[in-house]
Amino acid sequence: MMTQQDIRTHTIAVLVDNEAGVLARVIGLFSGRGYNIESLTVAEVDTAEHLSRITLVTSGTPMVIEQIKAQLGRLVPVRMVADLTVEGPAVSRELALLKVVGTGEKRVESLRIADIFRANVVDSTNESFVFEIVGKTDKLDAFIKLMEPLGLAEISRTGVAAIARGKDPLL
Amino acid sequence: MSEQLSGAEIILKALVDQGVDVIFGYPGGAVLPLYDALFKQNRIRHVLCRHEQGAVHMAEGYARSTGKVGVVLVTSGPGATNAVTGLTDALMDSVPVVCLTGQVPTFLIGNDAFQEADTTGITRQCTKHNYLVKDSDKLARTIHEAFLVAATGRPGPVVVDLPKDILMGKAPYIPASRVKHRSYKPQVKADIKAIEQAVELMGKAQRPVFYIGGGVVNSGPNACKLLTSFVRSTGFPITSTLMGLGAYPASDQQFLGMLGMHGTYEANMTMHDCDLMICIGARFDDRVTGRLDAFAPGSKKIHVDIDPSSINKNVAVDVPIVGDVAHVIEDMIRVWKAKQVRPAQKAIAAWWSTIDGWKARNCLAYKATDSTIKPQQAIQRLYALAKDRDTYITTEVGQHQMWAAQFYKFEEPNRWMTSGGLGTMGYGLPAALGVQVAHPDSLVVDISGEASFMMNMQEMGTAAQYRLPIKVMILNNQYMGMVRQWQELLHGSRYSESYSDALPDFVKLADSFGWLGLTVDSPADLDSAIQTMIDSDKPVLLDVHVDPSENCYPMIPSGAAHNHMLMGPEDGAGAGVSDHGMVLV
Ligand SMILES: Cc1ncc(C[n+]2csc(CCOP(=O)(O)OP(=O)(O)O)c2C)c(N)n1
Ligand SMILES: [Mg+2]
Questions:
Q1: Which end of chain B has the least Cβ crowding within 10 Å, N or C?
Q2: Thiamine pyrophosphate enzyme central domain: from which residue to which, for each copy (chain B) (predicted)?
Q3: Contact residues, chain A, for B129 at CB < 8 Å
């Protein structure tokens, strides 16, 4: 039997024809078959070719991850599926916008921490900041945790974008 | 500038281009332009169903008996939603179907217009792929693509949703030869290294078994021929799933019958004790494997499938081979010959003597009497009287379906049409009509249950209208027999709602549709009733009154392993069903 320890998080890149319903197909596949989606991002990356790239972060046992990839590959508009977690090193980044509300000592402290994390202030009022932070998911998680006691009021995250290291493109 | 046609004309031209000679459908407001275009031509025949579910099953019967794509045409809203069960059935059983659905005009989509349904949304999970055409210029291309996707790789249903303004708009026609798909390229040729590895394992195997499924039938008659000659040259035993029956001749000595929940004792024991399983075009369905952690525990497994997602889904295999069955077996035969593989003769002979011991249990035996017809007997007599004809068999779902699979012997592929994956009651009658449309001079028999029959009996009208002389043989046990059997096994024989009450007089019913209606209740009259049915040139409804208490054995109760079969009623109610088994379907 599989144990919890066999469950791993994988980042999967999916190149799809950018046609109506393609995202619904991917999401329907995950909900219909009971797979996890931890993060999903999508945008067109080649307008001339009508190509979109979906980056999915999911978790499962090796057998489930293989199933997910095979099921994705089976969708008619899917051109390519790549498991960035196992197919060599990859970089992944996420962007978050955080609204932190407060005055006095807390306000100063939030700025200090933002500086350490290299977050940018993209909006400010007398009693609030909006910080922009870019990095790996765990860096964002850490930043958010530190902001919580300092007046964190709202978060917007993009989800993960990822790409393999080195000179070779996916397609 | 090339000639401009209406959207409806483009569709019909594309269908003709795709070799379509018949479509199964039902009209309505959104598809009137298509029906008008149909009216004005004579290349394509239209068969009017009585309910859109029936149209899809007809298309399935047509497709499975010919290997061609079955085509359906229904209107928007309720027409499309009525087709959903049929589409799901075709998806589960990998049947190539193209279903054209009408839609409200593009400018009304999303307005809750009359007879609007989000057809692509509703059918996304029950089709292999679907399209909403929003531009008449894309019509021809989309229809051609739909056929490509439906028919190739692992076949399946494809929906093309057609807004009414697109059917009426004008555009030039594009022939099929100019349409290529950007991303859809199923793999047919397999990795030769994997095939070599498989052949090597076969050469060393002591207790091998071939386990084949519907993928072999889908790969085509040539795949079945290649498989048969290859299996014979190995001398290995072979068993088949419900869907694969006929891919290998049932009368052959190496054939062990069907495996799985109601498979033969010898097939299941052979699977359980094998040391090498060669799975070809089957998918380790739960009806086949029984308890997963006790499934063929000491075996290595080779799995050939055109769909990579079928491999390692339920059962981890040692040698995965992704490709089309015909191509793979061709390569296997070549490698087998080139390497001059000699199977382990002595071990295989010992294996056969073990198997012969299991066969001697005679697991399909039943006790015939002079007073009541046993359902098994009815199928055996049908087989005896129909086997020398050009016969096709369809079924509904229930005990009668399993008895048909156990007792009817299929020597060829494409002769057996049954709802396997979805288990759709009401499949058999319309499927038989689709088969009869494709094979007007053949004998087509739907082996039916009285409850299933009533799920799509409106299609009797279709049979009458088009003089399709199908035969429906009802094994009337006055119960939803399969439900009653499970209630006996799992729920203390409390027959909650499983009695077939208020049944019609089937003879009068038949009569009212212009069919021939017959009843038989004594074993002595069974042969002559079946003979009359077969000899009639009309559609016939034969109501066979069978023993209402007969159950279908052998049976692997849900959640049990292959070597824990119930052989008959003496094995007792509830025997071998764990708490885990109770929740399984
Ligand atoms: C559409 C549908 N509804 C319900 C079921 C559940 N079901 C499976 S077999 C069966 C009983 C079938 O009765 P009948 O057609 O008389 O066949 P028998 O088992 O008596 O041979 C039922 C209700 C089903 N398979 N399909
Ligand atoms: Mg019944």
A1: N
A2: 195-331
A3: 75-76
Residues of B in contact with A31 (CB under 8 A): none
Residue (of B575, B539, B351) closest to B460 by Cα position:
B539
Question: Measured from the CA of B500, which atom of ligand 1 is nearest?
Answer: 16
- Residue B52 among the catalytic residues: yes
Question: Which segment of A58-62, B237-241, B338-342, B558-562 scores lowest on mean pLDDT?
Answer: B558-562
pTM for the whole structure: 0.97
pLDDT value of residue A5? 65
- Listed in order, the ranges of chain B carrying CATH 3.40.50.1220 are 192-359
- Is the model's pLDDT at B199 over the cut of 90? yes
CB B503 within 8 A of CB B478: yes
Q: Are strands A120-125 and A128-135 parallel, antiparallel or unpaired?
A: antiparallel
pLDDT at res. B458: 98
Q: Cβ(B392) to ligand 1 under 6 A?
A: no
Q: Is B482 a catalytic residue?
A: yes
Alpha carbons B552 and B133: distance in angstroms, whole number: 48
- Nearest-neighbour CA in chain B from A167: distance (Å): 24
The dihedral formed by the CA atoms of A25, A26, A30 and A35, expressed in degrees to the nearest 10? 160
Residues of chain B with Cβ-Cβ distance to A78 below 8 Å are 183
Write out the two tokens for A166.
């080195």
CA distance A126 to chain B (A): 45
At residue B378, the 3 state secondary structure works out as helix
A32 contacts B128? CB cut-off 8 A: no
Of residues B268 and B578, more confidence is placed in B268
**Rounded-to-integer distance, Cα A117 and Cα A140, Å:** 9
Confidence of residue A3 (pLDDT cuts 50, 70, 90): low
pLDDT at A1: 46
Banded pLDDT at A11 (limits 50, 70, 90): very high
Q: Is the CB of B457 under 6 A from ligand 1?
A: no
CATH fold of B375-545 reads Rossmann fold (3.40.50)
The ligand 1 atom at the shortest distance from the C-alpha of residue B85 is 1
In this structure, CATH architecture of domain B4-178: 3-Layer(aba) Sandwich (3.40)
Choose, from B9, B52, B60, B550, the residue flagged as catalytic: B52
CA of B287 to the centre of ligand 1 (A): 16
Q: Is the pLDDT of residue B13 over 70?
A: yes
Residue B115 catalytic?
Answer: yes
Q: Give the closest of B124, B128, B312 to A21, CB-based.
A: B124
Q: Return the H-helix or E-strand segment holding B377.
A: helix B375-386
How far is CA B377 from each of CA B305, B399, B476, B534, B550, rounded to the nearest angstrom? 36, 13, 13, 17, 11
Query: Each residue of B55-69: pLDDT tens digit?
Result: 999 999 999 999 999
Binned at pLDDT 50, 70 and 90, residue B584 comes out as: confident
- Looking at ligand 1, which atom is closest to the CA of residue B425? 26
Supply the ipTM of this predicted assembly.
0.93
pLDDT tens figures, B345-354: 999 999 999 9
Domains and CATH numbers, chain A: 4-83 (3.30.70.260), 91-161 (3.30.70.1150)
Whether B135 contacts B110, CB under 8 Å: no
Please give the average per-residue pLDDT across B555-577, as a whole number. 84
At residue A4 the predicted structure's pLDDT band, cuts being 50, 70 and 90, is low
- The CATH 3.40.50.970 portion of chain B extends over 4-178, 375-545
Q: What sign results for the dihedral spanned by CA atoms B204, B207, B213, B217?
A: positive
Fold held by B192-359:
Rossmann fold (3.40.50)
- Report the residue of chain A nearest B150, measured CA to CA: A76
